[in-house]
Structure formats: C-alpha cells, structure tokens
C-alpha cells in the first residue's frame, strides 16, 4: 500500500446495504485481476462453444445428419458399473461435471476469499440471481399451464451461460467496467448453483441407496484429505490433486450409479476444496492453495474442451426446414423458453435489484447507470449450456419436445445476444473512460490509484 494512501476500511461480515451505501462497486484490485483472468479464459471457451454448436446444427440438418446422430448415440463404457453410456450422455454426465466442479469452486472462493464474503456486497447480486431464476421459471409455467406434458421444462430458462455471454462481449468489443463484469460472473455462478440444485431435487426419481451411501463416504474421505493433505502426506498443493482426482472420479461414478445426476457430484467436490484467504484479503496465508491449483488446471479443460464438446452433442437438432423451424417456435415449450430468457431474465434481475436498492436506500456505483445494468441483465438471458442440459433431463434426448426446447434455447440466446449488444455497444465510450481510470497508476507502484483510495467510485 502506498504510504500516502488510506486503506479502505473492511466491511463487517454482518453489514447490509444502508443509506448512502454503494452496490456493485468495483471491488478490490486483486478481485479485478482474478475475475479478468477467468473471463479471458471463458471468452476463448465461449467462441469454441459457439463454433461447436454451429457445426452440430449444420451437420444435424445436412444430408449427412444420420452420421451425426449415430455418433451422438454411440455407446461406450462398462455396463456392470452403470457406465455404458452414449457419447452424448458421457458429455452431459461426465464432461459437464468438470464445468460444475469449477462452479462449486468459484462460488466457495468468492464467498470465502473474494469480495462477496461481505454480506453488504453479496446480498444484491445473489438476490438478483435468484430473481433471474424465479421470474423466467414463472413465465414458462404460465405459458405452459394448460399443457401439463410441457410443464416439466419449467427450469430450462433459469440459467446463464457465462462463456457464451463473454464471447458476445468480446465480439462487440464491449469494455464493461470491472463492477459489471463481477456482477455478471456472480449472476452466472449463483444461478448455475441454483440450476444444479433444481436438477438434484426435481429431476431425480429413482435413488439407489447403496451407491449413494458409498458416494457420501467417498466425498467425506475426499473432503478430509483435501483439508488435511499437508499434515498427513506432506504434499504440496500442486501434487495433492494426484490423490484427490482418482477419489473424485470414484465419487462421480457412485453418484451416477445412485440415480442422481452426476453433475451434482462436480459441485460437491468443488465445495470440498479448501480456499486460502491471502494476506490481502485479511487471511493468515499467502500464495496459491488447492483452489488456485485446481482452478488453473481445470478451467482450460472445462472452457476449451468439456463445454464445447457437450454443446456439440447437445445442440444438434434437426429443425426440418423452414416449416419445421416455425412449427418449433410456435410450440408453447419454445415460447415459454424464449419469453423466460429474453423477458424473464432482465425483469427478474433488474426488478430485484431495483427493489433492494429502494428498500435499503443504497445506490448504484457511480461508474454505471441502470441502462448498463439492463444490458447485463439482457445478456444474462443467454442460457445455453445448462439450459440444454435441463432440456435433455426434462424431455429426453431425441424427443420432439426436446427438439422444440432446443430451438427455443438457440433462438432465445441469439435474441438476448443481439438485444444486449444494442444496449451495451452505444455505452462503449463511457466504458472506455472508466477502464482508463481503473488502469491509471500515477504513483507507479503497480496498483491503479483508484483501488488505493478509501472510497468506491
């Protein structure tokens, strides 16, 4: 810390937004760097995801479509362990577990060592994420209320695809302020957690007790070793994953065999990893711990391989030409998904934020306005990856309702991307000015001056 600067006082863990308080502030410099690194990786992953989905859609509607579906449905694995699965199922149950492992890891890190460990900073974005899940689900249910066979898809429009969203930001050249980037990532991570909770609670029918109990025992062992690896094995954090990874795979296989969707195991395994609070965040230790090591190793695997491969196997839907496409769009399933993502997401996010700021008399950070928040809320309507997963769970892969759901997801994601671009692009000049301010380091100490002031602008 520069000697002539006054450090910002730490917020109390019990603090809630009060009159004069700021919500969605830019946070700490370390948080800006960490979030920026995550979003750069997700940008590359998002571009790969979009490319994989486009290839799947073109292939599924080409004269060679039979080869695409034959590849997706090709089975491989060991049946006695309940692991003889199609390649599409391996992508959904196996590869997405890596994605959800990072969701669990990121959420724990954010609330243990990140800026959101303070209730005053966490309450609004978390509540906004909840609103962004509840309102789309309600809109879908309202549209499909007279179609009981379609109601099972109510959770499809609840998720936000962070990789797709930041890829859109990269394409339109948006320079979102760090406060809005942190808000977008928080939204995506929290509603991914809510989505996996919905999957565990509402999409699990036949639970097998023995593999479930064995999975719990394995998870407890995994958690114990993750917390005590130094004491019992004298291992460095960079080596401990050689022991934890095989145990994690066994836990995943047991959860899958129990009848609970295997991606739930990914989140639980992520939660089990200890997070070190560095000296900068008020903790006793500095340097990378297991959470940093795992994030560094698995983020490229998730963004660069797992999610794009899942998108390739899940996004391929034969629309049956223009007439088939229009028929799909007029299905109440598609209409509910489109309305939920394109309208419900921004209504839920923006409405919850506005209500909380009015109730607490808090104000938005001075670096942006409600129009900027609207742009991010519309961008959050890109619900691609997890929405495709929930569609498969709701209607079954290869069924007509599932195909119509996927058409709705694709259409809604494209519409949300276009609308968000129309809102955010005209604000780029303002965002560049904020970016310049956040990078100014007049005293040359390596930390931008605005992050050393005892105020949040």
What tags apply to this protein structure?
single chain, 4 strands, 67% helix, two-stranded parallel ribbon
| Discrete helix count | 16
Query: How many beta-strand segments?
Result: 4
Q: What class do helices, strands and sheet pairing give?
A: mainly alpha
CATH fold-level topology of the domain at 23-70 and 116-201 and 300-437: Na+/H+ antiporter like fold
Query: How are strands sequenced across the largest beta sheet?
Result: 1-4
* CATH architecture classification of the domain at 23-70 and 116-201 and 300-437: Up-down Bundle
Please indicate the percent range of residues in DSSP E strands (runs of 2 or more). Answer: under 5%
User: What average pLDDT do the residues reach?
Assistant: 80
Helix content: 55-70%
* Uncertain stretches of 5 or more adjacent residues: 1-19, 278-287
> What would CATH call the homologous superfamily of the domain at 23-70 and 116-201 and 300-437?
Na+/H+ antiporter like domain
User: Helix and strand succession?
Assistant: EHHEEHHHHHHHHHHEHHHH
Oligomer: single chain
Categorize the overall geometry: globular
Could you describe the 3D structure shown?
This protein has 457 residues and is an all-alpha fold. It has a domain of 272 residues: Na+/H+ antiporter like domain (Na+/H+ antiporter like fold, Up-down Bundle). Helices cover 67% and strands 2% of the residues. The protein has a two-stranded parallel sheet with strand order 1-4. The longest helix has 32 residues. The two termini are 19 Å apart.
């Amino acid at each position: 810390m520069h000697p002539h600067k006054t450090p910002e006082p730490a917020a109390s863990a019990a603090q809630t937004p009060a009159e004069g308080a700021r919500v969605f502030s830019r946070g700490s410099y370390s948080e800006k760097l960490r979030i920026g690194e995550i979003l750069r990786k997700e940008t590359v992953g998002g571009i790969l995801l979009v490319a994989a989905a486009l290839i799947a859609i073109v292939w599924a509607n080409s004269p060679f479509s039979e080869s695409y579906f034959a590849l997706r449905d090709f089975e491989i694995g060991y049946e006695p362990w309940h692991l003889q699965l199609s390649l599409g199922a391996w992508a959904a149950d196996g590869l997405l577990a890596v994605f959800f492992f990072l969701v669990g890891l990121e959420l724990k890190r954010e609330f243990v060592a990140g800026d959101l460990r303070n209730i005053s900073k966490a309450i609004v974005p978390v509540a906004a994420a909840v609103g962004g899940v509840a309102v789309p689900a309600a809109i879908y249910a309202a549209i499909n209320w007279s179609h009981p066979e379609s109601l099972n898809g109510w959770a499809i429009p609840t998720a936000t695809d962070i990789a797709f969203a930041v890829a859109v930001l990269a394409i339109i050249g948006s320079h979102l302020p760090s406060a809005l980037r942190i808000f977008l990532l928080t939204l995506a991570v929290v509603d991914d957690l809510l989505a996996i909770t919905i999957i565990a609670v509402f999409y699990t029918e036949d639970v097998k007790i023995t593999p479930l109990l064995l999975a719990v025992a394995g998870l407890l062992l995994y958690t114990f070793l993750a917390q005590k690896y130094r004491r019992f094995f004298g291992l460095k954090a960079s080596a401990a994953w050689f022991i934890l990874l095989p145990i994690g795979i066994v836990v995943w296989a047991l959860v899958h065999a129990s009848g609970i969707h295997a991606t739930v195991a990914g989140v639980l395994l992520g939660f089990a990893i200890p997070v070190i609070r560095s000296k900068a965040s008020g903790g006793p230790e500095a340097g990378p711990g297991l959470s940093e090591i795992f994030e560094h190793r698995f983020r490229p695997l998730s963004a660069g391989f797992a999610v794009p491969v899942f998108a390739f196997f899940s996004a391929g839907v034969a629309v049956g030409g223009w007439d088939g496409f229009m028929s799909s769009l007029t299905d109440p399933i598609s209409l509910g998904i489109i309305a939920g993502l394109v309208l419900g997401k921004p209504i839920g996010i923006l409405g919850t934020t506005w209500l909380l700021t009015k109730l607490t008399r808090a104000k938005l950070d001075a670096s942006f306005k409600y129009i900027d928040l609207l742009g991010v809320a519309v961008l959050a309507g890109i619900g691609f990856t997890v929405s495709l997963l929930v569609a498969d769970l709701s209607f079954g892969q290869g069924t007509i309702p599932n195909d119509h759901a996927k058409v709705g997801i694709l259409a809604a994601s494209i519409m949300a991307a276009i609308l968000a671009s129309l809102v955010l692009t005209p604000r780029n000049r303002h965002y560049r000015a904020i970016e310049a301010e956040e990078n100014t380091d007049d005293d040359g100490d390596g930390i931008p001056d605005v992050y050393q002031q005892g105020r949040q602008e």
